[in-house]
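Fold this sequence, please.
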Amino acid sequence: MRFEIRRLDEVDGTTVDCTVVDAASVNRIVQQAAAVGQRLWIRPAEAPAS
C-alpha cells in the first residue's frame, strides 16, 4: 500500500510539499517529523487508473 504524506506549514497549515511513499517508509518519515516538530497529513494514496 502507498501513502500520500503532506508536510504542512506551521503557521497556516497549507501544504509545503507532498510525496507518495510505500508503507514501510511511513514510520521513518513520521519519526523524523516528530523529532523536529513538523506537522504531517497522511492518507492512503489513490490507486492509478487502470
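Helices lie at 23-36. Residues 23-36 form the longest helix (14 residues).
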